[in-house]
Every structure is written in C-alpha cells, then in structure tokens.
TrEMBL record, chain A:
This is NADH-quinone reductase. One of its GO terms (cellular component) is plasma membrane. GO terms for biological process: transmembrane transport. The keyword rRNA-binding does not apply. It comes from Pelagibacterium lentulum. InterPro entries: NqrB/RnfD. Signal peptide: none annotated.
Automatic annotation (TrEMBL), chain B:
The lineage of its organism: Bacteria, Pseudomonadati, Pseudomonadota, Alphaproteobacteria, Hyphomicrobiales. Composed of six subunits; NqrA, NqrB, NqrC, NqrD, NqrE and NqrF. Residues 112-252 form the NqrA second alpha/beta domain. This is Na(+)-translocating NADH-quinone reductase subunit A. The keyword Translocase applies. Its EC number is 7.2.1.1. GO terms for biological process: sodium ion transport. Belongs to the NqrA family. It comes from Pelagibacterium lentulum.
TrEMBL record, chain C:
Keywords: Cell inner membrane, Cell membrane, Ion transport, Membrane, NAD, Sodium, Sodium transport, Translocase, Transmembrane, Transmembrane helix, Transport, Ubiquinone. Signal peptide: none annotated. It is found in: Endomembrane system. InterPro entries: NqrD, NqrDE/RnfAE. The keyword Cell membrane applies. This is Na(+)-translocating NADH-quinone reductase subunit D. The chain crosses the membrane at residues 39-58, 70-91, 97-114, 135-158, 170-194. It is a multi-pass membrane protein. The lineage of its organism: Bacteria, Pseudomonadati, Pseudomonadota, Alphaproteobacteria, Hyphomicrobiales.
Amino acid sequence: MGGVWHRETISWLIAAAAFPAACAAIGTFGPVALWHMLLALGVAIVWQLIFLWARAQPVSPIALVTAISIGVLAPGDFSPWQIILAVSFGAVIGEQIFGGWGRNIINAAVASLAFLYFAFPQTLVAGGGHLLALSVIPGALLLVATGIVSWQIVVSAILGVALASFALGQDPTIIAAQGSMVFGLVFLVCDPVTSSATRPGRWVYGLLAGGLLALFGWTDTGFDGPQAVVFATLVASLFAPLVDAAAISVASRFRRSRNG
Amino acid sequence: MRIVVRRGLSIRLAGEPEQSIDHHANVAKVGSRGQDLGPVRAEVLVEAGALVAAGAPLFRDRTRPDIVFVSPVSGTVERIEIGPRRRLSEIIIATDGSANIAKFDSSSIRTRDGMRALLLAAGQWPALRSRPFERIADPDVTPSAIFITAIDTAPHAPDPLPIIEARRDDFRRGVEAMTQLVGGPVYLCQPDVAPLVQETGRLKTVRFAGLHPAGLVGTHIARLHRPSESEPVWHIGYQDVIAIGHLLETGTIDPFRIVAIAGPGMRRPRLVRVPLGADLHALTRPDLAPGPKAIVSGSVLSGTEGRFLARYHLQATVIERKPRPSRHWLIEALDKAQMPAPFIPTQALENALGTDAPVVPLLRALSIGDAEAAQRFGCFHLAEDDLALARYVTGGQTDFGKHLRAVLDSFEERA
Amino acid sequence: MKAMRTLYGPIIDNNPVTLQILGICSALAVTTSLATATIMSVALTAVLLAGSVVISLIRRHIPNSIRLIVQITIIASLVIVTDQIIQAYVFEMSQRLSIFVGLIVTNCLVLGRAEAFAMHNPPGSSALDALGNGLGYSLILLIVGFLRELFGAGTLYGHTVFVTVHDGGWFVPLHLMLLAPSAFFILGLLIWIIRAVRPAQVELAEFEIATEKEGAAR
C-alpha cells in the first residue's frame, strides 16, 4: 500500500514510453531491429536470472528498455554472437555487478553499444530519421509528466547541444531531426539512475552531455550514426557523481556561511 | 514570518473526517506503551490490580528517574505486558469513571527550575522531544530553541485551529510556559492564518503554507533552526501545550486529546475526544466497514499498527488489510532471499522531503548506513516521520525511517 | 618450507598484479601480442632478480637517507643493460616494445620488492622472492597477452590459429582486444576469477546494503 513509484512500476513505464520508438525503429530499419531486440532481451534476462541465483539480486523489467535501446541504436549488420557478446558485457559489467538496476553507474545499453562500436567498427550503423525522432516525443512527454525523467536534464541538454554547435559554427537543428540522437537524449542521457542526483547537478550534467554530443558529432563521428550520443552519455554519466559531489560541497559551503 | 514550502505532495485517501468533535466517546481501557520511552528500559512503578488515580506515575525511565509516565485516567491496572528482552510492552488500565485525580503544586512556576519540576512531577515532560536523535528531552540540558507544532498536514489529521480556538487561554498559558523553559527563541509553527499569539522578543510565530510535509516539525527545524549534537532543539505538539496550560491553571493533568479517527475503513470518520492511550479497537469497532481492516495509530504514512493510541499521535487511520496472495513456494523463497531492491530517483521522491538537503544522495547514504555522508548531507534534524513520505512514495519498498534510526543510533553510541 | 613459500607465494596468493595491483601500465601496454609480452616478462624478471640480489648484497652498507636513490641507480643501470641486450639480439621486438623496457625503472613492482624485501633479507631469499614475483607478473602478462592476441588477431606468437575473414577464413577479429581498455577488462575478470577461487583475497566492504532487519535490531 502506498505511492506508485515502485522500482518495477517505473521500469514498466519507461518500457511503455520506449514502445512507440521501438515500432518506429522496426519500421525504419526493417526486421533486423526486431531480431536484435529479441536477442538482447533474451541475453539480458538470462544474465539477470544468473545473478538472481548467484547474488540474490532482484530481477527487473528494465531488460525491456535495454533491449529496445539496442534495437534502435544498433540496427547494423551484426552477427548474433556479436550482439550476445556485447549485451552480456553491458548487462554484466554495466549493471549486474553493481547490484542490478538502480545501483549501476552507467546505463547497461550504453555499455553494450559502446562495446559494439569499439569492437566492430567496420559495421555501419544507421541513424534513423524523422519518424524515429517523432516517435520518441509521446514517450518523452509521458516520462516528464510522471516525473521519472527530470525536465531540467532535457532542457539543459538541448541548451548544451545548441551552445556547443554555435561555438563550432554549425547548425544544431540538423541534430534534432536525427532519430537516434533524440532517442538517446531521452532514454540514455535522462536515465533517472545514472544521471546526476542533485538539482543543480542536473543542469551541469545536461549541459555536459549536450555539449559532448555536439562536440563528438561535429568533430569526430558525424551524425549519420548514433555513436555521438552513446559516447556522450558514457562520458557524462561517468562524470555525474563528480558533478553531484561538487554541487553538494558548494551548497553546504553556502549554507554554512548563511547560518553563521 | 511566512514560509512557503514549495516541495510537497498531496496524498489522496478516502475517509476524510468531519471536523465536528464527538464528546461522548466512551473509552473503557487505555494503554501506556513502553516504547514511547525510546530505547531506554522502563521501570514499572505499579502492580497489576492496583488502583491508580489520573496523574499517578505508572513507569519511569530507569536511567533518568525523574522522567515519569503517568496514568491518563483513574481506574485499575488490568495488565502489565512484558515484551521481548523483558522490556515493558504496555500497561493496560481499565477506567472506572471515578474522578480520582492527582493534584500537583503549581505555585512555584515563575522560575525555570520550578516549571521543570512541575512538568516532571505531573508526567508532562515526555511531551517534549529533542532533536537530533528524536528522544524525550533531557531535563538537565538547555536547548537552543523550542518548536511548538500547531500545524498538521498529515492526511486526515484534525484541524488545529478550531481546537486551539476553543481553549485559547490554556494554549496561551502553555506557550508562555515554554518560553520560560528556554533562554533562546520559541517558534510557534502555525497554518497560514493570523498569528495565534502575540509575538514577543523570543516568541516568534511562523506561518507555513504548502503541502505535506510542510506540517512536520522536521521541515520547520530545517528552515528555522538546525540542531547539532551539542545544541539540541526541543519540540512539542499543540495539544500537549494546551494540556500544560490546563495543568498550570488547575493543578491537574488534562489527559484528553482531540483525535481524528478516519480512513477508508471507517463508515463515519470523525473527531473524538479521548484520553491518551485510548483503546482504538473498541473505539472503531462499531463503525468499521465490512472486510478485513488494519487499525493504525497515527497517519497512514508514518503510523504503526496497534491497539492503543500512541503517546504522540493525534489521529488513527483505518485502512483495508490486503490479503496475502498465495504464491508458488519457489517464487516465495526467491523473493524472501533477495537483497533489498534499490529505489529509483523520481521527481515525486525529490519533493517528498521538506528540507533543501540533497534528497537522493541522502537517501542513498541512509540505504547503506553511511553515517558520515548522511551527516554531511544533513540528517540531524530528521526523524522517522520526515522520511515516512519518502517511504510511501516508493511504494513502501524501502523503509528509510528504519535506516535513519540505525544511522542516528550509531551517532548516539559515539556521543 | 619457507623458501618454497617465498617462491610460489607471489604466483597466486600474493600476486603483485592481481592482489597488490602493481605494474599495471606495462601489463596493459605490451600485451597486444604474446611475443612482446614474453620479452617484457623475461626482461622484468631478470631486472628484478639481479636488482634484488645486488641490493641485498650491499644492504648493510647503504646509508638510510639515500637508500632510494641508490636502489634506483642500481635498477636503472640494470634496465639499460637489459635494453641494450634486447636491442642487440631481437631488434624488431625492441622497436615494438619502444619505451616500455626503459619504463621498468618506474615499475613500482621492482622498487617495491627492493624496498620491502631485498633491503631486509639475505641474497638467497631475495633471489627467491624476486623470482617468485617475476613469475607471478609473467603469468598475468602471458595470460592477458594470450587472450588479446588470440581474439584480437587470431594468431599466437605470429602463427595463425584462427583464419581471419581478411584471409578468407571464418574468424572476425575483435578489434577491441587491440585497444588498452580490453586489457583492463581482462585483468578485471581475471581478478574476479582469482578472488572467487581464493575468497581470502577479497577486501572487506566498507558499507553493506542495509536490510530491514538491521534497523530493528539494537
């Protein structure tokens, strides 16, 4: 008896929000996206069960969200064992060894995708177009309205993208039309567990993630594929605890000086 | 001073009580709980079968013998329940309706020591609680401030304003008594209406507006006067202040409180005037809706299930008791063996603590028992009540109150 | 007996790389192929052995205030000699190892054993300790090098084991294995496996996840 923000409820809600994007991805990329999603789902669930048995860690439907993210952001020509290896790496090293979803530092999907892009750089990954970008919007609105995703990160990330793009002399609106960028922004950057936990920290984290997204995209990976948003999320979520610690120490120093 | 608490949550619960007071509630039994004394062992001063007057001492703190709990009513001690580890569980008294009331000498109250002696002797001292650590206040310590909580935002709590209005003189007298106990400020925390008393030099009225937990004393303390281990603050509820005012005027205790009995399980949720420790089961039995119910002393957020009204609670909530679904034995075993699931930061959780402390880092530190980190984020002004809303928001999955208590205990042991 | 324990202790139970986490940078850098890993292992073991014996021989004559400088001088000289030998006899290997042979001087493993053991023990035991630590370090380097070369290029010591798709075969090399992070992952998994088999090596957790029962018990 109580409020609704149980860990399982939240994961089902995020999965529901990602569902339209999953359909759009299957529509854009074809059945390969669906096979990748199902394979990733199977691998993630197997690892969750293994850790349930070995370390008594509760399982979670967040495997659905991880699977959808893999399907949307890695629709390339990967062979099954490559997907299995990458998702095993991401699920185990990214999530399970820390204690399951809720205790991890980086998103399991981000870890898997980074592994895929680094290990098999010759496989081309497509980015997804307007349809994918539009399909993310209803899910994003649902998540912001229910408070699972904090709007401060969304706003500051968009701001960071815009500022970094202008600093590099580029037009940021191209990024908004890129489906995988928008999907990554809502479901990877704004992940409630791995993003910053303090209120001022969220603004800094969002600016950092958005800025890195623009920087990686314009100078290195380009926006044809989703690499920019995955790497930006990886770096930003590693810095999120540092940003939090800085915000807390600044706030406590301010409070101490105010209280005398 | 007016403080708007912007972060807060509204809790929708059926069974809102009507604000008219039922003065004819008959209470046959009252119970004084040993756990209201905190972790200290209680020394029982009466025997089963003894006749007690209202105001006669029942049990006292073994380490500080001047702190006594007195009987709220006159009657016979029916039973003394001893719980695990031979601690006092409760003393149950059967009322006999006689007007056998103890009288106390309320003459020498001009001095701080005199006031203190009177409150201790009349068993009214347990009304004062101290933070950090949320224990009964130590009479030998002078706090740096006293908070009078005259606002209650818990779901289905009684409205303090008509209650205070009906006993305005007693309330004023009690507030003045509080200013005598301390050399520092006395904060009267009230709803967002005209000030209830005249502000003097040290007595300040602070109006609070906002949703729960704007009415919790932890929120007030965080905004106005943060305590530390060396400088504690004390707090007391408005109905206890009224009782103290009554004591000063008449020399007898006022054991009655206006309590809200409400919740979705009650057919006629209402306010009743009952003595402390009233038997909730008997009070609610005539009005229960059909179906299995749980009778909780306190609000739906922070209450505990029990037969008698706890010392500091001003309401009782009756909720549906959900039957446990029978599940497969393997799933049940896996469930029981699991590590506690972590909580997920959401905006609702961010708004569940009334202070401006960093919410998620504090809750994470409490979840692993990291006392140093919790102190750095600011946990000394908190008690279990303040974290009850956070527990409610996560669906009861993580009991932050218990974790906070473990952390505070580790500090107390060190001190 | 004690001598044998000095020798085989550092191989698993007190491994300098997986337990004390020393000498990691060379473990990451030179293990892209087994050949370079082997040369590095031999070089480090030789330097460790010779350095420990020499320092142990003169340990009673080193003034305390300059002992670190003397130790580094001895180790640096030995490293220069080793480097020259490698350049003379296996020149292509020396090119691939580039600066990492020279960096044996800074390897905390070498200085650590000199300071912790050779300064306080006779030459015989110092030699055994150095040999043991060298073998432990070599074991880890060879394991990591084996995995990285096999899955990163399909070869072992340059001989093809898995035929890559580039050469018309079936094996898709894992490009990640040729990058430094893979060595970190392999090392991490190795440490995990060793600590699963030898739970005595696991450090105590600073905090445990608080369970419901702890709050109630007092």
